[in-house]
Amino acid sequence: MKDFESTLQNYYSSWNEGFKTKDDTHIRNFMSERFVGYWAFSGIEKPEEYFFDYDIVSVLNQYKEDTKKEFNVITKTERKNGENCLVFGTETSLIEGKPHQAKVMYVWGLENEEWKLQREYIEMEQ
């Protein structure tokens, strides 16, 4: 798949840099303008929905500069002749020295020859 693995690594690096700088520019560069996200955990009835223009800086400001995120792929499914990829895995965020995990499903698609995050589903493990 056209540089997909490096795109995923760079996406997570942009989040880790964002925690330090509180700047969302590099994170947003990975997102499709048609992006839709869903965030949930076991205690809520309906996932929270958010879009391309959500306030990432506000999210970054909630965490200290040493916060780190990493992602371990469980499955990756190529679709639409390699122009779309569905990825399922575990995201681990190290927040104040403590790991917080979530199951995540991403939908990435090629837009103008670049991988863009089109959808994400995040389910916190609690």
Summed up, what is this model?
The longest helix is centred in the first third of the chain and has 18 residues, at 4-21. The protein has a single domain (4-124), classed as Nuclear Transport Factor 2, Chain: A (Roll).
Structure description:
- It comes from Ornithinibacillus bavariensis.
- The chain is built from three helices and six strands, in the order H-H-E-E-H-E-E-E-E.
- It has 126 residues and is of the alpha+beta class.
- The chain has a single domain (4-124), classed as Nuclear Transport Factor 2, Chain: A (Roll).
- The model has no long low-confidence stretch (mean pLDDT 95).
- It has a six-stranded mixed beta sheet with strand order 2-1-6-5-4-3, with helices on one face.
- Helix content is 22%, strand content 50%.
Fold blueprint:
Blueprint: H1 4-21, H2 25-28, E1 31-40, E2 48-51, H3 56-61, E3 68-79, E4 84-95, E5 98-111, E6 114-124
Parallel strand pairs: 1-6
Antiparallel strand pairs: 1-2, 3-4, 4-5, 5-6
For the structure shown, list the relevant keywords:
alpha+beta; six-stranded mixed β-sheet; globular; DUF4440 domain-containing protein; 126 residues; Nuclear Transport Factor 2, Chain: A
